[in-house]
Amino acid sequence: MGIIDRIDRITSRSIKDETKLQGLKLALNMVDLTTLEGADTENKVRQLCNKAQHLHDAYPGLPTVAAVCVYPNFVKTAKQCLKGSGINVASVATAFPSGQSSLEVKLLDTKIAIDNGAEEVDMVISRGKFHEGDYNFVFDEIATIKEACGKSRLKVILETGELGSFDKVRKASDIAILAGADFIKTSTGKISPAATLPVTLVMLEAIKDHYYKTGIQVGMKPAGGISNAKLALQYLMLVKETLGADWLTNQWFRFGASSLANDLLMQIVKQQTGVYQSKDYFSKD
Amino acid sequence: MTKKTIKINFDTGWDLAPAPESTSHIQLNEQYELFIGGKWVKPSSGKYFATVNPATEEKIAMVADANEKDVDKAVKAARKAYNEVWSKMPAKERGKYIYRIARLIQEKARELAVIESMDGGKPIRESRDVDVPLAAAHFFYYAGWADKLDYAFPNRKPQSLGVAGQITPWNFPLLMAAWKIAPALATGNTVVLKPAETTPLTALKLAEIIQEAGLPDGVVNIITGAGETGAAIVNHNDVDKIAFTGSTGVGKIIQNAVAGTNKKVTLELGGKAANIIFEDAALDQAVEGIINGIYFNQGHVCCAGSRLFVEESVYDIVLRKLKDRMESLIVGNPLDKNTDIGAINSKEQLTTINNYLKIGKSEGAEMYQSNCVVPKKGYWCKPTLFTNVSQSNRIVQEEIFGPVLAIQTFRTVAEVIEKANNTPFGLSAGVWTDKGSKLFNLSSQLKAGIIWGNTFNKFDPTSPFGGYKESGFGREGGLHGLKPYLKF
Amino acid sequence: MSRLEILKTYKIYIGGKFPRTESGRYYTPKNGSTPLANICLSSRKDFRNAVVSARDAFGGWSGATAYNRSQILYRIAEMLEGRKAQFIDELTKQGSTKATAEKEVNVAIDRIIYYAGWADKYTQLFSTVNPVATSHFNFTLPEPTGVVSIIAPEDTSLIGLVSAIIPVITSGNTCVVLASENKPLCAITFAEVINSSDVPGGVINILTGTRKELQSHMASHMDVNALLYAGSDKKEITALQKQAVENLKRVVVRDFSTNYDEKHNNPYYIEDFVEMKTTWHPIEKIGAAGSGY
User: Fold this and answer.
1) How many helices (H) and strands (E) does chain B have?
2) Alpha helices in chain A (DSSP H)
3) Cβ–Cβ of B17/A16 closer than 8 Å?
4) What pLDDT is stored for residue C290 in this prediction?
5) B49 reaches C (C-beta below 8 A)
6) What's the ipTM?
7) Quick check: B289 and A9 in contact, CB under 8 A?
8) Burial of A89 per CB tally in 10 Å (0-12, 13-18, 19+)
9) How far apart are CA B7 and CA B443, in angstroms?
10) What is the mean pLDDT of chain B?
11) C27: part of which helix (H) or strand (E)?
């Protein structure tokens, strides 16, 4: 109950003018530009990487996105395209999105991504095992993949839409954090519901409690369902009021989204010019 | 080697730009007369007083000062309307008038919300999202009862009383007017209402709405004034019923004044509610409930959760979470859409609150306030909490009516029930635990008129509200809210 | 030449939309010898589709707050008041005098307002907290039964229809209604009123056609929870009651012949279509005076 009330307070915050522009640019810098379709091809990935580097050249001084997120077999291509840009390559792994496979397959999946140069890995937890109550299994799996990641940062996807209640989301968050996650992430984006503000609040609280106990920071990434700038700003407001300054950077907070970037760009241009924008003026790659 | 103190850094540099609600669309007169017999009538004394915006200390408008003569005029108008029109009208037509009032409040909702914030100091978010919608809902709910009263009282024939004299407070001016007027009209009574002297404007706008609804002249009369005007209403011998919301002190004066008369009375008075957090509560949500219970509406709430009891095993964690959450509360211009805590209603009230802060410190309590910045002009109080207190402290016993929380710990269920009940007040209480059987145990033993389980400060027109002991008697809202306005 | 009028086509109302009957058939009710219009002769498939819509709409409608439902019912009354002239016109076409027609519409509007006022109160009337002898918190409250088939009164075009439908949906039920066979015009125009009143699609579905063809389906459909039959034909009633047995449908028979009688304004018409649920929860006994309700 209290979660919904808290979110109502956040969503009724009025974010205007300078605050809005600052927030929009910050949000843009936090986007993991994503393509995870069965129909993805080399060219699709190349085009996405191009977009990542040329968000909207008509408007100078824009920040870049944080990363591009793809399937493991496209990491090599993405790395080539993004060479020298400062934008990371994140790869999903561990039999994304369902996670219904053996540990061997999941480790191999991860290894391929790492060997090809992915700086970040987004793994999925075994939701089935979680619902069976085998929390040790879930923990061990995460810890093993973390080890395989080496220096690359591990994001752990909880798939909150399959967990069923806020209590379970909290439990899964705690397990992932203790097992060594660098980031906890809400969703694969393949099912509905994906990320929501209430679920994000629960995860941020888990991160906060852990920080107070250990001094260790863990990042957070809501993914899927964040299609417009207004919503993105509400997420940032939530982070600001829950975790404060240290988390308001793309080191510790990301948005997993594909069409969000263009909406952010449209809103940024609107803030500067005062005129509402049309989608026709922003490239779709 | 010293351990670095782990703290969340809220100094983000990403601050909220002002987001003021527009006031260009509202309509306010420079001066208001008394609304008697369906007309705007000048006060007999010719005297007016100013109503001031507590956030800016600027005058908003002048309102009339009603004296005994004016009160008499108003009661006569109410009596005439009762005898000649209202008591004769078919119940379902009465109901339709009340529906009209509800609809008009909805249509003018934004204007009413802005005026409420300007006049009283509460943030626009509260008046827009809570006060005004609930006021409309109250009229809607009671409109439906007008022609159904026989069902509410099995085996009895309910009848209206006549003229109701009603006095409302400054903390929820429009909402309290709705709580008073709606049931009175639905049950067939006519009304003379006096709003609080620091917040008369929304009641006067309501008078305009009542005119627009076409309510027959004299059915509702709204007269402004201070304590003396209220006393004149209470003492008038042609008033059948008195309804008062305000301080316990004045409530006792009223009860005294009607002793020996046939007047029916309901009183909704002060409180010092216990908010109880158990170790097995959902702590983050409980913290949200604590904040809601004492800081929103600047703590100007009779049912505010002003005495916090935390099970000792989770005291440190709850205190830490509470302080963190307090850092995100914004105190400021009530008309800014981002403001969480508005202005203190008046200079007098601020003085009272500051006095209690002094008393608290002198009693040995430890005071903590959040780091927010308050504006230079206007009446402001930062969200405050006191630790190192016990039941014997004055700040724990007496109602402060400000954003000030007193925190104690407890160890067992029996202990906290005893302490929670150890007060002459009994309006509300909050209980936070995930264990159902514990919740019902507490709710059945706490001596308070409203128990909030895992929630706080929830109101609904269908839900009866009222106190035990010195928090008053009688209920407002719900089926139970009809009874005070009827005889059988 | 004076201006040519655009004549209205009367379709049926399912799922918030106005389709024609899937059977493509029509019939022509008359006022004396004057034909009124070509009215859809609905088939059992239309009824089947309507039940699907009603079932889909049930979750949302019963899940809405009572306050929300009361606001919507009030809005229906508002819209009907605004369209009074159109209804008076249709009623006179179907044989009423102007005075009777006006009375019929006024009573219909007031009746809707009456039930709008019950939406957030009937629960307070019909619920109880039960003082059981063991340490439990025990409460009983009504829940809407589900999808209701309504066979509307035959003898009136508007007031009977409204009196049958509104109490059923007040508590959150959804319904499929068969309009009066010989006076169906107002039913479809009323569907237009409903459609413009924020009533979610599927909450009320209105079919035109014959009792003979559709009644048995309305009584036997396994996904319909209750049946309201307006009339007094003993043979018909017995047949319907027998057909309702298979899924233990609740069958309510009402005589609407005295439409203007106050008895049709009462909360028990709502209570006829709810189920009573009782919940128990333990109360632990710790503390001073002793706990319990």
Assistant:
1) 16, 20
2) 2-11, 17-29, 42-53, 75-81, 103-115, 127-132, 135-149, 166-178, 197-214, 229-242, 260-273
3) yes
4) 66
5) no
6) 0.90
7) no
8) buried
9) 36
10) 95
11) strand C26-27
Q: pTM of the predicted model, to two decimals?
A: 0.91
Task: Count CB pairs under 8 A between chains A and B.
Answer: 78
| Beta bridge mates, C128 | C140
Q: Identify the bridge partners of residue B476 per DSSP, sorted by sequence position.
A: B465
Instruction: Please report where in the chains the tokens 């609809």 appear, as a residue.
Output: B103
Distance between CA A203 and CA A222 in Å, rounded?
Answer: 10
Query: And the tokens for B300?
Result: 């100007």
CA angle C10, C12, C16 (to 5 degrees): 120
**Could you say which residues from 232 to 251 on chain C have a Cβ atom under 8 Å away from some Cβ of chain B?**
none
Which residues, 6 or more positions from A133, have their beta carbon under 8 angstroms from its beta carbon? none
* H helix count then E strand count, chain A: 11, 8
In this structure, what token pair is assigned to residue B56? 């800016």
The catalytic residues of A are 122, 185, 221
d(CA C102, CA C92): 10
Q: What is the pLDDT of residue B9?
A: 87
d(CA B483, CA B158): 9
Residue B371: CB partners within 8 Å, gap ≥ 6? Answer: B10, B327
| Chain B adjacent subunits, 3+ CB pairs under 8 A | A, C
Is A230 touching B (CB cutoff 8 A)? Answer: no
Say how far apart CA C264 and CA C266 lie, in whole Å.
6
pLDDT given for residue B3 in this prediction: 53
The DSSP output letter for B60 is: E
Tell me what pLDDT residue B2 has. Answer: 47
Q: Which two tokens stand for residue A122?
A: 């987004």
Residue numbers in chain A where pLDDT is lower than 50? none
- Chain B residue numbers touching A13 (CB-CB < 8 A): 16, 337-338
C66 touches chain B (CB under 8 A): yes
Which residue's structure tokens are 């002002």?
Answer: B18
Instruction: Return the closest-CA partner of residue B426 out of B248, B249, B175.
Output: B248
Packing angle, helices C66-82 and C159-170, rounded to 10: 160
Query: Measuring CA to CA, how many Å separate C203 from each of A94, C73, C108, C188?
Result: 46, 12, 19, 15
